[in-house]
Design a protein that fits this description.
alpha+beta, 15% helix
């Protein structure tokens, strides 16, 4: 009886070890059906910046095999999800486990060639604050080591995952 369980656990671990773990078109059936309004929607098209009660995450620009792209202050590559056409996140459940959102507790800060005017935030269904850049929610790939990009141009969860250039555009 233990052997089938061990095999099932090993298969699940391998599935998550790739870029993501599910190429299903849905982000997660357990997600709330009506996501709360994003901060962008709440302010009629203007992206809200949280009050700096605590230091926010730093977004900077660094060099990669894909040119100049966004990284956080810990040198983790930042991605966007092409399935999303607004600042409202559509990545929850298994999607957010493989592609964790870039979260912040305070106002996000730009460093170097990153543009402060493109930084913003959106509220997730769990009440956390996700960083946006040029209105797009931002994500990490769970297995990217600092300074590396392992899962650029990968199709999962109904869209492509692409790194972001300093202008806020997806790198093709």
């Amino acid at each position: 009886m233990k052997r089938p369980i061990v095999i099932a656990l090993a298969a699940a671990a391998l599935a998550l070890a790739g870029c993501g773990g599910d190429d299903d078109d849905s982000s997660d059936g357990a997600r709330e059906s009506a996501a709360p309004a994003t901060t962008t929607e709440k302010q009629a098209g203007k992206t809200k910046k949280p009050t700096p009660s605590s230091p926010g995450i730093t977004v900077a620009v660094g060099e990669s095999d894909f040119g100049s792209i966004l990284f956080d202050g810990d040198d983790r590559a930042i991605y966007l999800f092409t399935k999303e056409s607004s600042s409202r996140s559509e990545c929850y459940g298994a999607c957010a486990e493989a592609w964790p959102p870039v979260l912040t507790d305070g106002a996000p800060r730009a460093a170097g060639a990153a543009k402060a005017g493109l930084l913003g935030t959106t509220e997730r269904t769990d009440g956390t604050t996700q960083v946006t850049y040029k209105g797009q929610p931002l994500y990490y790939y769970v297995d990217d080591p600092p300074g590396q990009v392992l899962c650029h141009n990968v199709e999962e969860f109904g869209g492509l995952w692409l790194v972001v250039d300093p202008a806020g555009d997806a790198v093709q």
